[in-house]
Amino acid sequence: MARVIGVGGVFFKSPDPGKLKAWYIQHLGFPADEDPGVSFSNKNLPDSAYVVWGPFAADTRYFDPADKAYMFNLVIDDLDDALQQVAGAEIVGEVEEYDFGRFGWFLDPDGNKVELWQPQSV
Question: Among 18, 41, 105, 108, which residue's Cβ finds the most Cβ atoms within 10 Å?
Fold first, then answer.
C-alpha cells in the first residue's frame, strides 16, 4: 500500500498572488524563486522539525480570527524576530511554549492565519 510521507505543498487562492509572495519574501525571507510558488528543501530544516497533517472539527476556533477554512504552519529559526518582521500583518494571540518548540500566529495581508513554529533545537 502507498503511504503519505510528508507535505508536498500548501496551495491557496489570493486576490493578488504576486503581491502576497513579495510580502513573504520581504518580511519572512522566503526565497525569491522565479516560479509562482516557493520551494523549500528539507535539508534546511532542523532535525527536530516535522510535518503535521491535522484535520480539525468544522466548528474549531483554532483558526480564529481568520475566516478561512485552513491555516498553515511555517518552521522558522527565530520566533521573536519573525513576529517583529511581519509588518502589515496582524499578530494574533500570545506566544506559546511547549516541549517541542515555541509558537506564534499572525494574519497575513490576505487574512490567512499563519502559525510560526520554532522547534526546540533551533
Answer: 105
Residue 114 to residue 105: CA distance in whole angstroms: 6
pLDDT tens profile 31-81: 888 788 888 888 888 888 888 889 999 999 999 999 999 999 999 999 999
Could you give all domains of the chain from N- to C-terminal order, each with its CATH number? 17-30+56-119 (3.10.180.10)
Cα gap 103→94, rounded to integer Å: 9
Helix or strand (DSSP H, E) at 102: strand 101-107
**Beta carbons of 72 and 81 less than 8 angstroms apart:** no
**Positive/negative CA dihedral, 16, 42, 100, 82:** negative
Read off the amino acid at residue 32.
A
Which of 119, 98, 113 has the alpha carbon at shortest distance from 51? 119
Local structure of residue 113 (DSSP, 8 states): E
Return all residues near 6 (Cβ < 8 A) that are at least 6 apart. 42, 51
